[in-house]
Amino acid sequence: MNRMLVHVVMIVLVAGKASTSGTWKLTNTRVTFGKDVYLMCLLDEVECNTSKQEPDPRGWTGGPQYQLLCMDGDCRNSSKYEMITQSTSLNFGLLIHNFSESDLNHSYTCSCGFNDFHGNLSIEPKQVISLQSITKTIKDKNNINNDNMAIEIMLHKVNPVPNCSALLKGRFINDATVTVMKWYTYYNDVKVIYNFPVDSVACEGRLQILCNLVYTNVSIFDEYIDICQENNESLRTIILLAIGCCVFVMILLICIYLVKRNDTMYHLADNV
After folding, report:
1. pTM (predicted TM-score)
2. Whose CA is closest to 35, among 92, 87, 91, 103?
3. Domain membership of residue 83 as a residue range
């Protein structure tokens, strides 16, 4: 209880003071939603002397509610925040686990003793990598039109807009069409559409659709398909229908011929 009281008193004291020489920075060149982000507080001996103070006067404040996050090496929400200290340096950091959009555009303050260093955690959307969920896959195997099988996949909260390609048996076939359905600040909802060409050579095997996100390839479709039989059945159905139509037309022509012949004979008999 006394230790926490010391922490609270220290935060109250540093809240009214500011230093212009210290700073903190985001060390990640790119941030990935769902991964860790690291903030580094840069100090020198003039601004903070930890050897003469007990407990450790270094701490972090901030977040969506701008509250005390960590002090003296301990963090209130250890599953979300972790304080990183170094034995050979006064510099210390804040590790934010499972980083998300809710952690952005808020003030964060690193403090040591009576010195505190403020900053706003913001980042350009192009520096964000996000692939939250693959929510819907439509694979219409029973409806092959114009020798193509349509595959549609919805990707929610993805950034940047990916480039997607299809591979059959590990070999590149063609690019997929990617359409932005809805745009947000840091991500997009996109639809990936691929029309798989069906022929007698490439109608079965492991079909993959891979999307490239900056430097990461993400598999959004990976299944073994075999639609050769379905394609052959469709062809047989078309052939049978064509034969049936031809037979029907021939029967119809024969019937017309016989009717006309009977009429002719009837008229000849009347004349006689």
Report:
1. 0.67
2. 103
3. 2-123
